[in-house]
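User: What would this chain look like folded?
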Amino acid sequence: MHAWPASEVPALPGKGRDLRIHDTATDGLVTLDPGPVARIYVCGITPYDATHIGHAATYNAFDLVQRVWLDTKRQVHYVQNVTDVDDPLLERAQRDGIDWVALAEKETALFREDMTALRMLPPRHYIGAVEAIPGIVPLVERLRDSGAAYELEGDIYFSVESDPDFGKVSRLDAAAMRVLSAERGGDPDRAGKKNPLDPMLWMAAREGEPSWDGGSLGRGRPGWHIECVAIALDHLGMGFDVQGGGSDLAFPHHEMGASHAQALTGEFPMAKAYVHAGMVALHGEKMSKSKGNLVFVSKLRRDGVDPAAIRLALLAHHYRADWEWTDQVLEDAVARLDRWRAAVSRPDGPSAEALVEEIREALTNDLDAPTALAAVDRWAVLQQEQGGTDEGAPGVVTRSVDALLGVAL
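Assistant: Here's the prediction, encoded as structure tokens.
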């Protein structure tokens, strides 16, 4: 599976600082010091509907992580998956009378278009669950053969008790985990499981549903969590720098994935930091496909909204915050984009050297994009009210906003 084209990231004078970011597993800020190549895995979409603003906010957060690392002159090895076979996709295809493969391909293509328009830097490896199946099957077999997994009526389940570090990602108690498991794709009430929280690794073939050869596992398809584990271990290995996604993935997805990987390798942790973006609401409720309260990036683009304004609307909120999308949020972003473009359109202006460092400082402090935007706002006001004589300043601002914030002026 191919990703989307990369926009050029301008080189800036000087060098950025190491990123301090909130780690869910420790509930505190950690300073990341990757080697020459920073490694990040971000969980991708289940392509049964178009990219909504909640998706865009999540991928914007991890795009900022990449940009901070690139500013330190590191390379970035970014991996993202596509869950191109799963119950929600199959259910939507059946509801709409569409072939599930065609639906997945259509929505994945639209996602690529949205990411390109928003100037999100693409992953080096963009892997679908289906194409990962040959690598998933041996991992499930290893877990089963080691006693970390077991069979139940043809399905294979992971035993959470096989990982002594289970629970260290989300830091939730068993009762809270059980509630979230039921809400987020688990089956805690299924009879015969060793532990209600045990997640499925391999689902035996069901009539009328797609299935693949699973070797000694029999025909079936992979569970949700093992998919990402197989892709991450194959391309990044254990102990990579950041595992990212929305806050609703901390449990069960990232918790279970970490335990799968740790049981497979005997190493801890799977990732050095578990980083989670907040949820975006509409009309008082979390934006989600199940509720249907969605604002689609593609529709905003069709309506003539500049993708740079959409990106500024996302950047106006701290990535960990839960916030609500409103018409005013977009109007403010459009107005900000107009002010910035007017400011950099002049032939000269106030010196911008300090501004570059302000943006860097804000982003390295837990991706504080709102503070970075405020710094650019101040420069734009100074440009409007007083002007300046530095002929290079508008270009410095343009390149800095592009390189560090992903906004094209």
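The two ends are 31 Å apart (CA to CA). If you want, I can go into more detail on any region.
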